[in-house]
Amino acid sequence: MDQPDVTEDIHILLVDDENDFRQIIAKRLKRRGIEVREADRGEKALQMLEDAPVDVVIMDVKMPGMDGIECLKRIKEKYDLLEVIMLTGHADIHGGVEGIKSGAFDYLSKPIELEHLVRKIKQAFHKIQRILAEKEARAFKEQVQQQMVVAERLVALGTMASGVAHEINNPLAVIQDSAGWLQQILEKPDMQGIPRRDDFNKGLERINKAVKRAGKITQQLLQAVKTQTTEMADPSTFVEVDLKKLSEEAITLVEPEAALKNIVIHLETKEPRLSAWTDSLQLLQVLLNLLSNSIQATEEGGRIIVRLNAAMEEAKIIVKDTGCGISKENISRIFEPFFTTKEADQGTGMGLYVSWGIITGLGGLISVESEVNKGTTFTITLPVKK
Fold first, then answer.
1. Nearest-CA neighbor of 241 among 184, 193, 280?
2. Confidence class of residue 355 from pLDDT cuts 50, 70 and 90?
3. Is the CB of residue 23 less than 8 Å from the CB of residue 38?
4. pLDDT tens profile 272-320
5. Do you find a cis peptide bond into 111, omega within 30 degrees of 0?
């Protein structure tokens, strides 16, 4: 089946040392809406590919200096998706066959029939698009499978955590009441002169802080379990959310924290307006948590990027930092409750667990990629329509 007659999105590099031939072909291709760049030798072609990528290279086999076959091999080593169409003299079929063996998409003999060349360019371009679509589909499938594994594990952990949280709340209440009772005794006039009274007060203060921390953890646990056991968030709370405005709001809220470490947060988007059908408050909670985590993980003077992308019927919010990164052994556990790489007084390990539950409840996905000492990237994928 012939491919659709679409050429305006195709960018090619035409490489030929015959200036008149190259310029005529380039002019005729440009009339077809194809973006054409020109090079007169292999060395220049490689440099031009470094400066700006193209979809298809059309290259003569025989050129002075680096010939087309050598240039082709170097291109395929560095740009695995780039397709190359070789041009040969009418009597030089061997050169075309050698090009195919070295990874060329096809070869054409001079003189070139333009319609044939355009057809081959479109075929090469659509092959690239098909490979990219297949890669994206595989990546999405792997992401969903990973999410399902995490979901099954977290549901079991959540059920257990719910029972633990309820059981812990009772002794916590007893400890808090007892500490308060002791504090009242210490405040009585006849207790003002007892030995080491300040030490007693310090001890009670530490007990109160520990009880508050434990209470916060159990509260987060119960909230997290409630989030995880709800298959979907209440659709009645869903509205069309402008993701750019929401991201700007989140960045504004965390900028004072970032400024303390001289961290700059950039918002990047090529979309004039990108929206998702979701719960704005819950999504804002997740975005604030991701940004706060990035700020804590990033050294002074670092950089955080919030990037908005559109893909078919999905919207993506990407939070990328230049922080310390997450090791391979830890990244598979990053969404588990109580798992944290922070100091004990800096986090409970519940933030990402809750965030995972919120995004799942919103019908989306959240994933993470990271490299130690280079940074971490979280990607939120949300449905665009109802």
1. 280
2. confident
3. yes
4. 788 888 888 889 989 999 999 999 999 999 999 999 998 778 899 999 9
5. yes
Give bridge partners of residue 278 from the DSSP assignment. 239
**Which position has the token pair 């950039």?**
266
What span, in angstroms and rounded, lies between the C-alpha atoms of 139 and 161? 32
Residues 6 or more apart whose Cβ sits within 8 Å of residue 244:
267, 269, 271, 273, 274, 308
CA gyration radius for the chain?
A: 30
| CB contact at 8 A, 27 and 33 | no
With beta carbons less than 8 A apart as the criterion, state whether 333 and 287 touch.
no
Q: How far apart are CA 289 and CA 226, in angstroms?
A: 18
What are the structural domains, with CATH classification, of the chain? 11-112 (3.40.50.2300), 146-227 (1.10.287), 230-386 (3.30.565.10)
User: Is there a contact between 203 and 175 (Cβ–Cβ < 8 Å)?
Assistant: no
Model pTM greater than 0.70?
Answer: no
Residue 27 DSSP SS3 = helix
What does the longest C-alpha to C-alpha distance in the chain come to?
113
Copy the structure tokens of residue 85. 């169409």
Q: Which amino acid type is present at position 214?
A: A
Among 273, 302, 292, CA closest to 375: 302
Pair of tokens at residue 181: 């009772």
H or E stretch including 306? strand 303-311
* Integer Cα distance of 55 and 12 in angstroms: 6
Rounded to an integer, what distance in angstroms lies between the CA atom of residue 321 and that of residue 294?
Answer: 6
Q: List pLDDT tens digits, range 231-254.
A: 455 666 788 899 999 999 999 999
DSSP-assigned letter for residue 190: G
List, in order, residues 6 or more apart from 113 with CB less than 8 Å away: none
Q: How confident is the model at residue 166 (pLDDT cuts 50, 70, 90)?
A: low
Contact 295, 333 (CB under 8 A): no
Partners of 305 in beta bridges: 266, 320
